[in-house]
């Protein structure tokens, strides 16, 4: 049964916007009756004949006596006409009725309300703006699907009552729209830049060309790009005149900024400045590719957190064939960072095009670095040198990537400009004091929240001083952060590790020609040097390979080749642990690629036995443990992990979340402060099947997908959208290899 949002919906203004809401809510059964209000009697008759409304009247005063608490009035008249509607509402609007609107400018709506209601915006008013429309207008243009999968921005005020806001949110969701909340001023500034300015340009361009002596041929032979862009110049002139006047200040600000940038672009073309042109075009392409998110100032990778994805892993299957998996995420991050700071042009092949890496790519574009691509894993970075980064236009969004945020904090600590690093909901809960503290010791000024979490607010212009830092716990991210800050510090910065961690930063620094000093567990770097551009081929990520290594190990009859896998000695723990458990893993064709050791790996099914995992292997396998837990469940006997406190502060508490999921699938576990005990079931069907929660952790999602190879029944894995951070084509490759995996959104 459809959920009733309101007893009655009154639509004031039966054009495209109002008529489409009326059609959609009627179709969804979201209200008992729809009444239209439109001064033109003919339009009222058309609206009823077309089934847009149940009835229609020419005056709002005729409708108001019919309304009851819980009804909704939607005002869809031109922006400057809203005040007169509000005046009518003030006279006789019954208590308990919700009022909302669809105007493109919210500041003028609030001002009109304050004027009509004596300086106070009433609590029943919920200002809103549907980000949907067409160059067509009028009741004949109304469409039932206009708002499906479109954004609706609500700008409630402090005075807005929660019950009224909730009613409006339910109304828009009932017609298939996504509801976003934004302050009034921010809404008007954003829309001035992303909607109002394009209309100014389109109207102006068409008007200019219409006066050109060759206008007949211009319009006759106009290509698709011209037609697409100028389509919006067919929009309702009256409506857009009102919008321009209502949002005048914000639109003028956007026009001035555009005029300045257009002038700079003209200068670059005149001077044949290839670098400037490439910078503008690559930044513009990246921005356009993510326009839907940028439109409302949403995060670069925000879609991962709003789109629910569930993996459906059917029992059985196997793993066979030759597979080339995605590039290493850790190396991809570092290649972008160092390539941006190098002198010259760096070409990177095999880049992981996952969401985390794309966020890092965008961060450096925002800081003025020209980056071509990615195209099939290839990017070209036009380095700006150690002092060439520019202040970003706003907060730098790092998505779900703790690696990117922590490493970038080190680089930004030595810059001349201020910067703020933010992340998604998961990253915003992760500890950042572990990098902020050593950076503060170096003289950086960094703020976190009261619990040491993002956002990281970094004050530029600080002269960093070298430190001799002993890591309190093994962490490649903290080590790399301090090393990168050391590039800008006076003196020799040294870091001593309690246990070996991945050394991708050190290897890449040397690949870019920056000298390092090593002495056992101690690595040192002298500030003030420079980086030279180079070519980098990113090997396959051992963390991604681990899922297929475990899959082949536990699946009867499996035999798989994994090509070009990075086997850095600081990351080979998963291989060592699995071999100690009895896995049939053969490494061949060892070689060096860009300073990183690379191998081809053959894995076949094997009987596993439980072991006490050596603590010296824990830092070398820290990201692979979710997959290793699945292997442990399939082993004969008990597997014990200790010394793995780091797992509790990843994307989630990986020890607890994996334990919960394993227990749901029939595996006995004992959670400890620094690890876990897993009672393996040996051969046969190990897992019962059922539903598990990944808590948005990409590695946990993929690990439970692998478990289905030995399950009795289907496993449903909730919260899998973040798999896009590290392994965007995981489902496709798993299916190609022989697993029965699909996704549901």
Overall geometry comes to globular
End-to-end Cα distance, whole Å, is 22 Å
Strand content: 15-25%
pLDDT under 50 segments (min length 5)? Answer: 292-306
Helical stretch tally? 25
Helix content: 25-40%
* Main β-sheet, spatial strand arrangement: 3-2-1-4-5-6
Total E-strand runs: 32
Question: What do the pLDDT scores average to?
Answer: 91
C-alpha-based Rg, rounded:
30 Å
Largest sheet: 6 strands, parallel
The class by helix and strand makeup works out as: alpha/beta
Describe the structure in your own words:
With 745 residues, the protein is an alpha/beta fold. Helix content is 37%, strand content 21%. The protein has 25 helices and 32 strands. Strand 25 (584-593) and strand 26 form a beta hairpin. Helix 14 runs parallel beside helix 15. It is globular, with a radius of gyration of 30 Å. The two termini are 22 Å apart.
What distinguishing features does this structure have?
single chain; 745 residues; alpha/beta; six-stranded parallel sheet; four-stranded mixed sheet; 25 helices; globular
List the helices and strands and how they pair.
Layout: E1 6-12, H1 16-27, E2 31-37, H2 41-49, E3 55-57, E4 72-75, H3 82-92, E5 98-101, H4 106-116, E6 125-126, E7 128-130, E8 151-154, H5 162-174, E9 178-181, H6 184-210, H7 215-220, H8 224-230, H9 237-246, H10 248-270, H11 274-289, H12 291-294, H13 303-306, E10 310-317, E11 320-323, H14 329-341, E12 345-349, H15 355-366, E13 370-375, E14 378-382, E15 396-397, H16 402-412, E16 419-422, H17 433-441, E17 445-447, E18 456-459, E19 468-470, H18 476-486, E20 492-496, H19 504-511, E21 517-519, E22 522-526, E23 535-537, H20 542-554, E24 559-566, H21 573-580, E25 584-593, E26 596-604, H22 625-633, E27 636-641, H23 654-664, E28 669-672, E29 675-681, E30 690-693, H24 698-707, E31 715-718, H25 730-737, E32 739-744
Parallel strand pairs: 1-2, 1-4, 2-3, 4-5, 5-6, 8-9, 11-24, 12-23, 15-16, 19-20, 30-31
Antiparallel strand pairs: 7-8, 10-31, 10-32, 12-14, 13-14, 16-18, 17-18, 20-22, 21-22, 24-26, 25-26, 27-29, 28-29
Helix pairs in contact: 3-4, 6-10, 14-15, 14-16, 14-19, 16-18, 17-18, 20-22, 20-24, 22-23, 22-24
């Amino acid at each position: 049964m459809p959920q009733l949002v309101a007893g009655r919906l009154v639509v004031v203004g039966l054009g495209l916007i109002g008529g489409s809401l009326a059609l959609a809510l009627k179709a969804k059964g979201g209200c008992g009756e729809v009444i239209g209000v439109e001064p033109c009697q003919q339009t009222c008759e058309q609206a009823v004949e077309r089934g847009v409304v149940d009835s229609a009247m020419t005056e709002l005063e005729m409708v108001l006596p019919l309304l009851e608490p819980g009804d909704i009035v939607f005002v869809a008249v031109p922006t400057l006409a809203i005040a007169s509607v509000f005046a009518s509402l003030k006279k006789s609007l019954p208590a308990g009725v919700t009022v909302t609107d669809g105007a493109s400018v919210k500041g003028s709506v609030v001002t009109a309300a304050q004027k009509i209601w004596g300086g106070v915006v009433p609590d029943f008013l919920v200002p809103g703006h549907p980000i949907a429309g067409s160059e067509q207008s009028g009741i004949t243009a109304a469409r039932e699907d206009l708002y499906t999968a479109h954004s609706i921005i609500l700008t409630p005020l402090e005075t807005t009552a929660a019950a009224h806001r909730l009613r409006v949110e339910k109304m828009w969701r009932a017609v298939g729209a996504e509801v976003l909340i934004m302050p009034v001023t921010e809404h008007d500034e954003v829309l001035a830049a992303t909607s109002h300015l394009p209309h100014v340009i389109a109207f102006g361009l068409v008007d200019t060309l219409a006066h050109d002596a060759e206008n007949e041929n211009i319009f006759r032979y106009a290509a698709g790009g011209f037609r697409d862009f100028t389509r919006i110049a067919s929009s309702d002139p009256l409506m857009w005149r009102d919008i321009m006047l209502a949002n005048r200040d914000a639109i003028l600000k956007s026009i001035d900024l555009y005029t300045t940038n257009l002038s700079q672009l003209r200068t670059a073309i005149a001077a044949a400045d290839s670098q400037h042109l490439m910078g503008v075009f690559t930044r513009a392409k990246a921005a356009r590719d993510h326009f839907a998110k940028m439109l409302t100032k949403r995060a670069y990778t925000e879609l991962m957190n709003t789109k629910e994805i569930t993996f459906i892993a059917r029992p059985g299957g196997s793993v066979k064939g030759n597979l080339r998996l995605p590039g290493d995420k850790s190396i991809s991050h570092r290649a972008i960072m160092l390539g941006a700071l190098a002198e010259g042009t760096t070409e990177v092949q095999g880049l992981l095009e996952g969401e985390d890496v794309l966020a890092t790519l965008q961060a450096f574009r925002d800081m003025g670095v020209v980056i071509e691509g990615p195209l099939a894993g290839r990017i070209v970075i036009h380095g700006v040198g150690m002092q060439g980064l520019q202040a970003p236009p706003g907060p730098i969004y790092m998505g779900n990537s703790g690696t990117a945020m922590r490493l970038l904090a080190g680089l930004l600590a030595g810059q001349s400009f201020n910067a703020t690093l933010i992340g998604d909901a998961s990253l915003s809960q992760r500890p950042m004091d572990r990098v902020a503290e050593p950076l503060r010791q170096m003289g950086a000024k960094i703020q976190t929240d009261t619990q040491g979490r993002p956002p990281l607010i970094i004050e530029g212009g600080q002269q960093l001083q070298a430190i001799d830092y002993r890591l309190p716990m093994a962490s490649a991210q903290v080590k790399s952060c301090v090393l990168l800050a050391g590039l800008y510090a006076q003196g020799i910065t040294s870091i001593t590790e309690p246990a070996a961690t991945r050394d991708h930063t050190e290897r890449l620094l040397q690949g870019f020609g920056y000298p390092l000093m090593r002495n056992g567990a101690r690595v040192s770097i002298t500030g003030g040097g420079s980086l030279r551009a180079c070519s980098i081929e990113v090997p396959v990520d051992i963390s991604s390979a681990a899922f297929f290594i475990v899959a082949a190990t536990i699946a009867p009859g499996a035999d798989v080749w994994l090509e070009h896998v990075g086997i850095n000695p600081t990351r080979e723990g998963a291989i060592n642990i699995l071999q100690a458990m009895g896995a049939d893993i053969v490494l061949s064709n060892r070689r060096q690629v860009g300073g990183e050791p690379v191998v081809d790996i053959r894995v076949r099914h094997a009987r596993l036995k439980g072991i006490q995992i050596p603590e010296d292997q824990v830092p070398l396998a820290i990201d692979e443990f979710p997959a290793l837990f699945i292997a442990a469940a399939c082993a004969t006997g008990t597997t014990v992990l200790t010394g793995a406190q780091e797992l509790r502060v990843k994307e989630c508490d990986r020890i607890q979340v994996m334990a919960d999921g394993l227990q749901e699938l029939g595996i006995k576990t004992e959670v400890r402060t620094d690890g876990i005990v897993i009672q393996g079931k040996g051969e046969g069907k190990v897992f019962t099947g059922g539903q598990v929660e990944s808590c948005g952790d990409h590695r946990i999602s993929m690990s439970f997908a692998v478990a289905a190879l030995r399950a009795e029944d289907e496993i449903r894995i909730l919260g899998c959208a973040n798999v896009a951070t590290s392994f965007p084509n995981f489902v496709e490759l798993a299916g190609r290899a022989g697993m029965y995996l699909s996704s549901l959104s």
